[in-house]
Protein 1
Amino acid sequence: MSFTKNLIHGTNFDADSLNALQKVTLRAVVMSFLFFGLVAIEGVIMRMVKTGPVNPLPKMFSHPDHFFSIMTAHPIVGIFGSTYQLVFAAFMFLVPYLTKKPLYSVKLANAVWILITLGTALAWFAAFLWHYAPLYTLYWPLPADTKQFETIGGIVFVVGVALIMIGTLGFIYNIYATIFQRVGVHANKTTKELLISGFGIDGMLNLINKLRGKEPYTKEPALSLPVVAIFRGTVDTFLDAIVILGAGVLILVYLIADISGVKLDVHTIDALLYKNYFWWGLDLVADGLVLIYVAGSWYLLATIISGQKLFMENVARAALMLELLVSWMVWSHHLLSDQPQPEMMKLVSGEMVTAFELLTQGLALFITLVTLWKGRPLKMSMELKYLLGGLIGFGLAVPAGIIQADMGMNRVLHNTSWISFAHFHIALIVGLYMTLYSALYVLWPLVTNNTKIYSKKLSNTHFWMYLIGGLGMGSVLGYAGLEGALRRHLYVHGEFEPYMILGAIFGAMIFIAWAIFLYNIIMSIGLKGLVGIFTPAKDKSASYGIED
Amino acid sequence: MTFATSLELLKFHSVAYTIYALIIISTVAWFGYNLTRKEKVKSIVRIPFYGYMAFLVAGGVGHHIFTYNAIPWVSEDITRHNVKPDQEVNITVANHKWQLPPLPIKIKAGTKVFFNVESNDLIYGFGIFRKDGSMVTQMQVDPKYKNDLLWTFHECGTFDITSTEYSGPAQYNEKGDDLMFVKDAIVVEGCKGGDK
């Protein structure tokens, strides 16, 4: 097939053959990858600026107003515009597929991706047009500092984030409404049975009964393990959305008062208390839903790739419950350098409970590896490659975080680029995204009705460039942090130059990898197919695979 | 094993984590290779599940026990309210400007110094840096709170300070210079014996 034919028509993709569930899934996936491109460009700009004298970009990018507005938009676009959309898309397809029930509402699923896209765009414009730059941490009273930022920028930013959170609540409602629908295989299940299974209590009871030499509580749990992980992770997604919305309302009150000519005293709000509240919520993303969703995804991918039953399934179910509880009690590791924070909270929440994440994530890693091992010999498919990449990502990033969550280490690592690169950029770029790419390759034939991927060579190029770029950027800038480089700081005079140059090169590799991936996907579905994804589906079915 | 300065700790950490990272990457690569081999390979080691769990618990808890014993500022920090310092340095900050005592702040090596930093507006950070840019120590500075950092210098030299927390673009001028950076703010003298 010629280049032009592929570009327009793809390989064998037919958008008209997709049902409503497939189309809404792909719409969110498309938006997610477009936002990924934006976030990669932002990342490369920031990396270039920090190379200092050799920075090839125009001077305006090094201006503090411009630089920090990019740094503010970057995580909003990356976490919500891209990651949330991709995860939500996968789960809104997987829950109906795995439970053999239709999605509760396709209309709501459409509203979710539209709201998140709109909200992300608004937050981005607030940073781009008005240079609103309190960073994603929104440390009080910075977001309400109208001496540094234009009030209108703040209002648009908060409205944008609020739309994202409303979209998130829509996703949560859709997921739970689908799980609790009493149709199909769940027609005779009670809400209590579904709740017990959703929280993994059945797995725990099975373990207890086994220890007592009794029959298992249930041989066939009502919900499969990946659905349990989605159920559990979505609890944290909900709590996080409420906390962020709450912070947004507070900021909005101050900004609207300012625009109305009323000066409210920002010190009425206790900055440390606010920090605790906000980190409690924000940490439910980093140490809650991400880890739980990832564990569930690993279990699903390992069973599909190996064709084996999950190793130690009851333990995995019970561990997911533990992970949920742990995620509610670890926020204080973000406040180990805050001297007024009570020492006991630092010790218990910041150090001891946080260390449990090594156990829960280590357990997920172990179960996944053993499940794969049982299925050998396996073909080194794209999905297996990406899954192994994801395991490496978390294998590196989780201990890097645990090391920092220590009162001794935190004194010299807090707010350095160690935490932002060796820990969470590796967790996100390598750990999470490689897991998601693996899921994408597994779900691709189901969501696109067996569309052939244009080029395996390009898939492999993407894999290696992305892996080397992600690990390379994470490690060199992690080492820069050990040399004293701060994470939320502007360096334009060649400070830490060798690290910054290498960081920019590796960062550019991630961007190029994304461009290759996008090209491969467009050549697979064609521009006509891309447009077709956004046209109404002829087949209104909100399920997949039930007839099988 | 104890680390007298943060530089020693960071060097140790750098080597230890590099070794760990190489082990993890090569283990997963080796694992992936063996997953695809036609002939079923025998496991070199059988890792018992409970042994692995015990290893993780020991790693998580042992890390904190190790740092508590090897890093002197951990126990000092926890018990700092019961410590009578040899010297107190009082600093206030507002509008991205420090109000510092007369510079340079002279400190005798091996003595216990309390840095009391108070912010009147935003959240800042208070960080002390060596001339090569590496960090000696730091803390967050929460507005309207007493932010006190107890530190014992075991290294002599001249040190710079800056804010380690982002507090808005007003920390920089248009060229990107850090306006909160204070060169040669602290001088530590009188090293002897175990001090460097």
Protein 2
Amino acid sequence: MKMQIAINKRLHIGLLPLILLVLMGIAFVIAMVRYIYGIGAISNLSNSYPWAFWISFDLFTGVAISSGGFLMAATVYIFELKQFKPLLRPSILTAFLGYIMVVIALLVDLGHPERIWYMLIHMNGTSVLLEIGLCVMTYLTVLAIEFAPVLFEGLKWQKFANLIHRFIMPFVILGVVLSTLHQSSLGSLLIIQPAKLFPLWWTPILPVLFFVSAISIGLSMIIFESTLSARYFKLGLETHLLEKLARAYPFVLGLYLVIKFTQLTLAHSLGLLFTSGLMSVLFWTEILVGALIPLVLFSIRKFRQSARGQFYGAIMVLLGMILNRFDVSWFGVKHPDPLTYIPTFMANNVHYFPSLPEVLVSVGIFSGGILAFGLAVKYLPVFETEQHHDRAS
Amino acid sequence: MPNTITRRDFLKVSGAGIGALVLGQFIPPQVAEAARASGLLDAAGSGYIPSMCEMCVWRCGLLAKVENSRVVKLEGNPEHPHSNGKLCPRGQSGLMNTYDPDRVLTPLIRVGERGEGLFRKASWEEALDMVAENMLSIKKNYGAEAMLFSTTHCLSQAQFENLLNAFGSPNYGTQRSLCFNAMIVGNLVTYGMQEPDRKYDDLKYIILTGRNLMEAISTSETSALSAAIDRGVKVVTLDPRFTKTAAKSSEWLPIRPGTDLAFHLAMLHVIVGEGLYNKQFVAKNTFGFEKLPAAVAQYTPDWAAGITGIPADTIQRIAREFAAAAPYAMAHNGWRTSNFVNSFQTERTITILNAIVGNWGVAMFNESGEETGSLGSVPQPPYPRVTAQRLDGVPWKYPFVPLDIGVFQEMREAALAGQPYAAHGWFISRQNPAMSLPDRGRTLQLFQKLDFIATIDILMNDTAWFSDVVLPEASYLERYDPLNLVGNRAYVRQPVIAAQGEGRSTLWIYKQLGQRLGLSDYFQYANEEDYLKQQLAPLGVSLDQVKQQGYVDLPGETPDSSDEAIEPKWNTPSGKIEIYSTTLANGGFAALPVWEEPLRPKAGEFYLLTGKVAQYTQMGTQNNQYLHKYADPPRLWMNTQTAHSLGLATNDMVEVTSPVGMIQIQLLATQAIRPDCVYLTPGFGHMSKGLTVAYGEGASDSDLHQTFTDPVSGSQALSQTFVTVKKI
Amino acid sequence: MADIQHKAFIFDATRCIDCRACMVACSVENKIDMDKTRIWVSGIGMKGQFPNLTRASMVYHCMHCNEPDCLSACPVGAYSKRIDGPVLYNPTKCIGCRYCMNACPFGVPHFDFDKGLLQGAFIDKCTMCPQRIDIGLQPACVATCPTNALVFGERADLVAEAHARIQAHPDRYVNHVYGEFENGGTSYLILSHVPFTELGLPPLTERPVKEVSEEVMGFTIPFALSWAAVLSGTAMAVHWFNKRKEAIAAEKEAKAKQLEEADK
């Protein structure tokens, strides 16, 4: 399945890595064009749609899929469920790379990427985005520290690895707190737009909903990444461990549904559930695909125990919850309407679809993440638990 | 064949003379210094300079903000009654008029074919010499009358007239017959004045026939109407389109085009028939009222309803409401009254309507006139006697049209026909007949027939594009003009910045030309400032004082027309308001208002309407980038249902055909127009590639308009052209 | 609601004739690229079927809210509200995140999507012409409006004026002054003859939009500290419990070994 392409006598590169490199290159070129000619030159963003595909995909989804990191760190270090250790390092790596991708994406999306550090010196305490920015920056540091042992072991600097192991707990706690904060704050971003976000989604408890769903996304990412890695890197499947992990699904998803529908009831929004056209369709897709159906499926032991079931179940949750992120940040948001009729030349057009270069930037960044993941797995002891070099099966 | 020619492409620098011309005291003194000396600008070259706008004929007073010798903002001058401190969108965009990258800043001499747009730069000396040579040659070979002169109303018009009168040509074209001849002549024969002043302050009821004041913005009058509406004044608008004025009115009557006359005759019928008129005023101030009842007996509301499409009881009600509100009621004459041949009768009817409800002194006044005498004037020897007939038929064909107004389209027609004699040259100043005269193809034909055409303009407008010599005028922010009388003040236009490039004022150009034509005696002023000083001489104020303040008060009291002790006088044969017009009777025309059946479109044809847009002035401002940015794109309006029935939708490209021409334009399907009408955004369809912003946009209604002249007032009937529309 | 002593506008939709002099004046005055005006025209335009038609248009720019959402949302505090009313934007702090564009209920801030890093891509919006109002002039849009659809003055006076106009012509106006209380009060007060939604104005409550968001944000630090405490507590408890388990198991094992030894 792996094809090798010989570049020269000594250098061989697989087909997939080559494709990933090409995509990264394309993204880089597009980013350069963006820096010279402006965001509008390579995207369909406009005054009606200042945030759209990049924010939904790179920021919201990117952060959400990195939630496996804090989940595993809490599971292994705080709750001391040591049997999940094999899943810890890959999830930290996933999270670490995920956040790096988020930051790179922001460097393209921000009007002034060279000023990204201004959030450290000019701070507006009421801004949700500030909180997210600071948390992400700090958490990235924490993740680096949590991942450092893998690097050090790979470099055979065992002493440094041990040093970090000893003082890991405060960082884990800090990491969980930071993750909780910004996973939930991504939801809070939309609280300031009550008139713009459709009532099936807007609520002051968006942060709670985001946090709970982030846990389910974390579970799914761990299963997803673990299954794919097993296949691609020719490792044994961790089905047994993953089944234990999957036992959490019904509780997490159940909690999510209870909170969500209680919120809708208290907000008197139940009447909108079936009468809101496209919004209803989007909402129910989220709920069914992302929560209700997986909840049922993962309650069935046989389903939970099969590798196939775990993988496809996790994908369902991922898709449904990513749709939720897209709904909250883009699809469910009302954009300036055509009642603004002069001047049309300021691109107050309300029809938006991401342009090809816009999508390619995100694809390229994502490819970089995958490539980095593959390289890390190849050269670093990612799939080995610390101080052991054989695989626990 | 050159496709897209930029100005740089076609301008070739002249090898000949950079100018041994001694401009002497005509080089505008460094404005910054002069303004500094009079205290208007500070040491940095910044400050406010009062002057006057020229983006339309309303000429609002403005204050120009100057920073480092650049105009950076224009404000309305609160001391000017036409602006009262406000400026309309065109006024605010005036900077872009002066700083338009397409400005013609040097004299240009044609090198290619006429209409090709190939010119070379020339010095003033060469250009002026060439113009004078050609004019003298035409005079020598064909007589002075073979030289046509035309200009549109402007502040230096008196000197333009001076030039043509001194030259000896009777052929003088102004844009008036394309605009308000019907109104002027109607007022002249009835009231003995061209246009009374109007006051809105005390009114309770206003009828507007056209006069789209909210889009044809005359700043102070628009403000006054808006304030009246705000107070709760009832406004009735007659218009086949739902204009922005109609939208602000209490009642909008979507009247059939050409039938305003029927409406107003029915109004007269009701008011006279039911005795609702002001008997005292009529008895004291009018002549011939006793003949009116019989004349309007047949014009019942029912009769009018069938013609206009407005219900009879509506007409009756409005007539009664109008009379009941009198004397605080006014029927506005309209301004561009060049609609149908019967528009003259409409004007007569409206004028009489106002008279019989006795609103003189309340709504209408005569506030101007006395003060003209108090200004000085430049001495002029008597003009040469002109024996040749005017080509435009004034006064032998059109006895009632004033000589300084003329019948412009007839001048073009006669010149084309070569009857009674051929024209050989045309001198145009601040005017664009290539776009304004109806049936543009014929104007272009005339261009090709003439031996010589010279144009004064600030941009390469379409007429300049076809000229042999183009003389660059300094823009209105860059020049002096003769004083402008408004109310009891004389306002000054002064340079706010030094003229860019080689631009010069027309005061200078006319004098330079006059000198070369051997007419120096008629231009006895050294320069613009000297001209103004001579105008100011009787007032005993210095020019610097006037420049400081922006105006000078004129001595003498304004006659207070509302003062009952003063007897109003009318300059008519009877000395009274002539309901029965002896002037018209003597001319063989109907002495009382009479119904004239207007032309109607056949099945499948539409009335072609025109009308103003707030962001443009006729066809002169489409190149202004600010206005171009903020205005709606040019379109053909068609009623939504009609469009639907023809399988047309908004943004479709359509072909519009009239008996004389065809255009292509994008459609706008809208509810705001009668189903039997279409409306074309005016002023577009420029042929000159020297207008880089405007060229290629929209289409010109002049390509479609047929020439129809009203025999009484010489007014061109612009709405009498009918068109068919089909999808491309 | 306490009297707010600062500058404000009234826009009267019954007077606006959609001439756009305000747009030209603003762009000229503030030397803006005319492609990016600070004033827009919005509204349902024309309504109805020939010949029963009405028309409504509104010009609007920044509402200069009393409780600005842009100010609340900007992570680097690039917005500020002057004591006399204008909400001002500071480009030297801006990082171009465009959160303010989302936060503004009126869609006011606009961004240079066409400028790269060298030219500098910034937000722009109405500033209430401080260079004019500070020397006693009116903002450019107000100064030029031929029909006085726009007027300018002290907010308290203008609120009274707005209500006076409604009282004088109750059949003409919708009985509401938009902006008096919406979003906590704005400095752009609107009178209309048609429902405000037909002018493009969003229905907003009196409670400032940003308040919920700020309340939630206010929980951040207390929550973070509590959560850290809970997690630390849990970790310590679990650790202690596991250690205990291990100790008991070790004890058991030791005892078993002892017995084994003893047996030998």
Protein 3
Amino acid sequence: MFFSFFAELRQAKVPVSLREYLTLMDAMQRRIAVFDIEEFYFLARTSLVKDERHLDRFDRVFGHCFKGIETLGDPKAEIPEAWLKKITERFLTEEEKKLIQSLGGWEELMATLRRRLAEQKARHQGGSKWIGTAGTSPFGAYGYNPEGMRIGQQEGRNRSAVKVWDRREFRNLDDTVELGTRNIKLALRRLRKFAREGAAEELDLGSTVKSTAHNAGWLDLKLVPERHNAVTLLLFVDVGGSMEDHVRVCEELFSAARSEFKHLIHFYFHNCIYDAVWRDSRRRQIEQTPVMELIHTYDASWRIVLVGDASMSPYEIEKEGGSVERWNDEPGEVWLRRLLDAYPRAVWVNPVPERYWTGTASIGMIRQIIEDRMFPLTLDGLDRAVRRLTR
Amino acid sequence: MVRFEGTDTYVATQDLRVAVNAAIALERPLLVKGEPGTGKTILAHEIASGIGKDLITWHIKSTTKAQQGLYEYDAVSRLRDGQLGDERVHDIANYILPGKLWEAFEAAEAPVLLIDEIDKADIEFPNDLLLELDRMEFYVYETRRTIQARHRPIVIITSNNEKELPDAFLRRCFFHYIRFPDRETMQQIIDVHFPNLKHELVHEALTIFYDIRQVPGLRKKPSTSELLDWIKLLLVEDVSPEVLRSRDPAKLIPPLHGALLKNEQDVHLFERLAFLHRRERG
């Protein structure tokens, strides 16, 4: 039983190795958790999961493998009728309410529920009679509505073991889902490249020994500068229009990037890069930086990150005069290529979820121009983007 | 067998207790992660006092090397002594300075060793400690001596997630993620720290606290340690529960917010929300 659990964990991409499995067995043998499914859950979690990103996956597998093991307790006494009634009334359609009437009304329904709870011995899923999950029986979780009339999982009942993993509290730590400032910082931190710069204040033992020897044994201290992050980055952020939906996540990316780099210079653009970008959104019409000037100012050692949803009309990329803002003599594609030629290390980060990319023509065009260096704005995508940049 | 059950100044949830006890029983390091301010470092102190052991702390900085935890050879002072003709210079052992790990290995009774903020160090740091933490022994090249742990110390390692830790290292540890306490646990934590607090005040303070954590876009969400500081301040300033409850839209920012909101952007965000709120009402 445990081994299939282990296999399923690996299948769900929780990186567990034999060593962790043996540790768990060892811990079981020493009776750290006995006769208590909840303790076993905690023990398995602490020994098999090594990163909070995998906790949610672990919870799901655990819930799947060990369903039916936990006991339902005695819920009869603990479901307040009024509460059930209220919830159900809120979510039921008129038709369903009629159905309830046809079953004999509320009192009858509650009586049936009690009877069934008494009959039922184990946890149940699917089917049309027993109380469980995802079924069509009038009782149980996920039956009527997504929030569910969740018997066995609501607050106020005894804290049964099911709840702990079924609550899935670690969902937002999964790296493919949410992106917080902290997560972004973590991803960006990969970009760090250390170089020695500035004041000499660290002892350089090697050359001290060497020069002391040269000095016929008299101590001659040699110092080297401390290491600093030497990565320089130009950040281009798409503002306005279709980007409105992604403002929050872009702000987070921005604030995280801000504090991570000493040399980070940001520019704004709209939809596509044309002859000029700007640094201050409020004064975009007055203070613009020509892209040519930018290319001449910053050399090719700078890396560039473009953040935008790349969702626009294809004309904005391939036709002169296609810009929605003002007349452009050369198409966006020319400018974009110019920028990419000047900075070989570039990526495009797209806040639009990856699965929708194929649906928009302009995303495909930009991807082609950027030679498939487009990554989604998730932790995983950012990670890949950063790895691409450091190559 | 020694078991950790929490102390009267620290609320340990069941999952944390299981993790700690597993680490103690199997003599493996316990890696603790979690939001800043949820009591990662305090945990080691509490384990030490809970099971009556000594605590040895090793705070890691970005410049810390694994070797420093084992021992350091003070070549410079030996060189100086050599030039001054000091007698001590003939024994190299005089210049071997034991580190925290050595200290923990030599202790008469198994101590609790806290390796604090391991992610601050260089990326190779955890790898360099693999063997030492696994076998609990290391070799001193200068004196040709193997230092072996007399008793395996209980090792608690904290990380703030600034760097990914190597897999090989993780495989040898137990892992626990301290998740942010729910309201019930938080109530217990407050009870432990301020036993004589008026129930109403706690209720109002917690409501405000969790409301603040709900506000989208906060740079730094306040955590347990900030809440405790804030309650301490509320007590010192003698703020009554009524003031907290009065949720006057003009005063959307809670009193003494300095303890909860730690940067000016967050305070601005709050002021802006208060302003919007007022405008909606007006």
Protein 4
Amino acid sequence: MNCDKGSAPERLATLPPGGPLKFRMRMASDPRLLSVVRGTVSELAAVWGFEDEQCRRITLAVDEALSNIIRHAYKNRCDQEIDLNFQAHADCLEFSFLDRGEAADPSRFCAEPLDEIALGGRGTHIIRQIMDEVCYERLPEGNLLRLKKYLPGAKSKAGPAFTHV
Amino acid sequence: MKTATREQTGSTIIDVTGDIDIRTSPGFRKTLLESLKNTPRLVVNLREVRYVDSSGIASLVEVFKEARNRNKRLVLFGLNATVHDVLQLTRLAKIFEIRETEEEALQA
């Protein structure tokens, strides 16, 4: 891959040997790091073959998920840990987020249709709009949120699926 | 994110630069609400905004509601594809007054 700054990312047409391409990040729950993650996710989505609009949207969904963790699970504390894992499969990108904060309210993820001028609730609405699969689990070690976005044509999208385990 | 304020006859223009996210949206919201107190029409220039998240959108909605309650106007202009897309996703593109250019925003 050409690593010159400013060059377009090389798109990977096939899965590399050894299975899914993986990228792992452990970050503090500090909002100053969000712009760093946004840059990384946008590049990753581009490398995996998503068009510009989808790259922007995937980045937005990941950013909203992290923002929710910082605001709701960690109550805006900046010194907590979030484990962020990316896996690039042949047909999709999968993002998982593990935090050790307060349990999420699953009803937020399957909320009623958005009230246009309500002040809250847009973050989860955006995630559900963009991602093909949204799965939340409360585990002994914390909250696990998994988001999947399929490559265009990889799967017929019947609408965003939400799973609460 | 940075903001700069200009005055035109009958309008206050806020030029916004950078990203609006959970770190910066409280300052963005405060600047807009303070500026709205002293003008009948608040014009927000988003041309240099690279990114906006749901907290930035919530700030805009709050200012929109405040303007409506006080019979004032909030006009946005210079939205790039990223900002416009977030407004579409949140179904707010039809709620706000949106113009392409500053001239159009001032004539709105």
